[in-house]
Specification:
Blueprint lengths: L5 H22 L7 E4 L6 E4 L2 H11 L6 E4 L9
Antiparallel strand pairs: 1-2, 1-3
């Protein structure tokens, strides 16, 4: 099992903060259940009901970017 690096923890913190302060009011509740793939550095995002579709579009634009992913209106992306 791998552990999160300091960079990954910081990316998650920044992603959560950006979503809470900038995107939540704009996206909830109309897009609840959709997946948000966020470039934390620029604020650009892709939104889709299919997580992989959103990620593929984001990667097509910025192949070297590490994205923050969340499910709009939910505390987690999924369950194990």
């Amino acid at each position: 099992m791998s552990t999160a690096t300091a960079n990954e923890i910081e990316l998650a913190r920044q992603g959560k903060d950006y979503y809470r302060h900038t995107l939540r009011a704009k996206l909830e509740p109309e897009h609840n259940g959709e997946y948000l793939v966020l470039d934390v550095g620029t604020g650009e995002y892709e939104l889709d009901g299919d997580e992989l579709a959103a990620l593929r579009r984001a990667r097509a634009k910025k192949p070297r970017t590490v994205f923050y992913i969340l499910r709009v209106g939910y505390p987690t992306v999924g369950r194990i």
